[in-house]
TrEMBL record:
PANTHER family: PTHR33376, SIALIC ACID-BINDING PERIPLASMIC PROTEIN SIAP (PTHR33376:SF4). Gene3D superfamilies: Bacterial extracellular solute-binding protein, family 7 (3.40.190.170). It comes from Halomonas campaniensis. It is found in: Cell envelope. One of its GO terms (biological process) is transmembrane transport. The keyword Transport applies. Its main location: other. The keyword Signal applies. InterPro entries: DctP_fam (IPR018389), TRAP_DctP (IPR004682), TRAP_DctP_sf (IPR038404). Keywords: Signal, Transport. This is C4-dicarboxylate ABC transporter substrate-binding protein. GO terms for cellular component: outer membrane-bounded periplasmic space. Belongs to the bacterial solute-binding protein 7 family.
């Protein structure tokens, strides 16, 4: 799937050894992620390690590689394919298989309970998503969360889709989102994230969208004064290991790994939700106007236009399965 060669950053880990440990030694499970140690990705891996040691003492040694020590997320996926590392926490499911772009579609989720039904309920749709990942060589240990995404502006509250008319907004280069924001009347601009603060400061764009954690950590409240809780999308993350690593484990260890993964996944999701809620209050305390009376139904038509544009790549049945998950 991935044709570019391994970079030195990833290849360097080969010096740690690429063979799985012998029966008398702890099996090595090296897990990479690109976030700082303060991020929930790191605590997710650490919690998983603690739970796994409780369930299978001395059997598997988990080592985290944070801060993009081993390159970027694409390189982690390559590293797992080549057996250089065993696992990673990433958000590149759409890159692994375009059918998984269904998880990134705008307005596809009704609320947090719907997200849980799709990704954390052992439902038929979750099994389908997990199977797609496994077909591509990755075992999903858990689907995590970064939070629903909201819009910041200066002096322009977004209460309905029509309020985006003519707004120059930075949006990641995610095609379904670009389609949806154009349908909503905005002018989406896929700037690199590293340029976003200065672009807002200089008026190159006059709005952006991200989860509250990113808004706080990036200090966007210094250059924007209004936060509208549109919750128009949520991109999940995933804790994955290579299929080859998974298949090297006996059934008892697989059971222990999944139990530890489920416990740590639930902790990560709960902590992320609590943190994002608290951070909205923090942004209010910092002086941002919080707009909570958002008419989410007004965004539906534009979102559905983006779903239709991706129907051939994702599959109408999978879109419908995700959209309706949990409905009686």
């Amino acid at each position: 799937m991935f044709k570019k060669p391994l970079t030195l950053a990833v290849a360097a880990v080969i010096t740690l050894g690429t063979q799985y440990a012998t029966a008398q030694d702890a099996i090595k499970l090296r897990v990479a992620h690109s976030m700082p140690t303060s991020h929930s990705y790191q605590s997710w891996i650490e919690d998983f390690s603690v739970e796994l040691e409780r369930l299978a003492p001395g059997k598997i040694e988990v080592e985290a590689f944070p801060n993009a020590q081993l390159g970027n997320e694409t390189e982690y996926l390559e590293g797992m394919q080549f057996g250089v590392i065993e696992g990673a926490v990433v958000g590149r499911h759409g890159q692994i298989d375009q059918r998984l772009e269904v998880l990134n579609l705008p307005m596809i989720y009704r609320d947090a309970n719907h997200l849980d039904e799709v990704l954390r309920s052992d439902s038929e749709v979750q099994q389908t998503l997990d199977d797609i990942m496994y077909e591509n060589g990755y075992k999903v240990l858990g689907w995590g969360e970064l939070g629903f995404r909201d819009i910041t502006t200066s002096g322009v509250p977004i209460r309905k889709a029509q309020d985006l008319e003519g707004l120059d907004i930075r949006v990641p280069n995610v095609e379904p989102w670009l389609i949806a924001f154009r349908e909503w009347g905005a002018n989406p601009t896929p700037l690199d994230f590293s340029e976003l603060y200065s672009a807002l400061q200089q008026g190159v764009v006059n709005a952006q969208e991200n989860p509250p954690e990113v808004i706080v950590n990036s200090r966007f409240d210094e250059v924007q004064d209004t936060l509208s809780l549109t919750e128009h999308a949520s991109i999940p993350s995933e804790f994955i290991v290579s299929a080859r690593f998974w298949e090297s484990l006996d059934a008892d260890l697989q059971e222990a790994v999944m139990e530890a993964a489920t416990i740590s996944r639930d902790t990560q999701v709960e902590a992320t939700r609590e943190a994002n809620k608290a951070l909205v209050d923090e942004l209010s305390d910092r002086g941002m106007t919080i707009v909570s009376d958002v008419d989410r139904d007004s965004f539906r038509a534009g979102a559905e236009a983006s779903w239709a544009a991706y129907e051939d790549r994702i599959g109408a049945d999978l879109i419908e399965a995700v959209r309706t998950a949990g409905q009686d």
